[in-house]
Every structure is written in C-alpha cells, then in structure tokens.
Amino acid sequence: MAQVALFAAIMVVLGFFPLIQLPGAFAPFTSQTLGVILAGAILGAKRGALAILLFDALVFIGLPVLPGGRGGLSVIMGPTGGFVIAYPIGALVIGLLTERLWRQYNLPIALAINFLGGAVVLYAIGIPWMAVAAHISLHKAIVTSVMFLPGDLVKTVIGSLAALAVRRAYPMIPARA
C-alpha cells in the first residue's frame, strides 16, 4: 500500500513541472508520462496500475495535481482527458510485460515495453478522445500528436534506465504485485 501511495505522490510531484503548450497542439507536453512508466516498470502490473488509478482519482475529485494546477471533471471531459484515463492502462501494460520478461529484462526490452505502454497505449486512447472532445478530425489529432514523440522517447529512456537500475539492485525479485 505504501508503494502505491508513493508512486501516486510521484505523479503529483511530476505535475509540479510546468506544462509546455506546443503551438497548434490540443494537449500540453507534461512529465507525468514518466510516472506511468516508472509505476508499471518498478511496481509491476497490479501495484503500478493501482498507483496511477489513485492519482487519477485525485484528478477526478478536482485536486489540482495535473501540470498548471489542473484537475476535475472538466479536464477529464476535455481534449486531454483520454490521456489521463489511459494512464493506469499504460502502467498495467508496462507492468504485465515487465513481469513476463523479467528474467531477460535488459535495455532494449525495457525500451520496447515502456514505449508501448507509455506512448502507444496512451496515444491509442488519448488521440481519439482528443479528436472527439476538441471536435477535430482523427487525422488532425494524430498529426498534432506527432510533435510529442521526441519527448516521449526521452521519457521512455529515462524510465527504462531507472527500471534497469532497480532490476540490478533487486535481481531476484521480479516486479510482481
């Protein structure tokens, strides 16, 4: 339970980093995707997803835990809401794959897993949501989201390196809940 609360708190702290609103984008660039990656890769599927669900609950009840002091149902119903809803699913995917591949876990595997859960899953849910909420075409939502890929790659590398450091420190303990 303490680990779940700790990683939810890490998500809140990552929200203190200022959001970066890119020109023409309907969603800001934030550092909280890194928290999703870390929760799944370090805590595993169950605890990682629970940590991010706890964070999402804080957003839903209106606490200003998203960058820019945002939170509440209006954020969830807005263009970025699909990404917030996708956070626990991304952590779950990362955790499941990390657990499954723990014995072979290395940098290339970590990068693939963390990019899949920390970008592909989030985009697969967040981009269609953005299109509907912003009243734009799916194509335009996809095109405007491409500019976030470099930052997501950086967060994937940072999260992967951190997960590998944990694996080295605890090699006999798989990342299972």
In words, what does this structure look like?
- This protein is mostly helical.
- The chain is 69% helix and 0% strand.
- The chain has eight helices and no strands.
- It has helices at 2-14, 32-43, 45-60, 73-77, 81-100, 107-134, 138-145, 149-169.
- The chain is globular and about 45 Å long.
- The model has no long low-confidence stretch (mean pLDDT 90).
Low-confidence stretches: none
First CA to last CA: what distance? 10 Å
Portion of residues within helices: 55-70%
Shape type: globular
Count of distinct strands: 0
Rg over CA atoms, rounded to whole Å, is: 15 Å
Total helical elements: 8
**Biggest sheet statistics:** none
| Beta-strand fraction estimate | under 5%
Average pLDDT metric: 90
Order of helices and strands: HHHHHHHH
Q: Find the structural class using helix and strand composition.
A: mainly alpha
Labels describing this entry:
177 residues, mainly alpha, 0% strand, globular
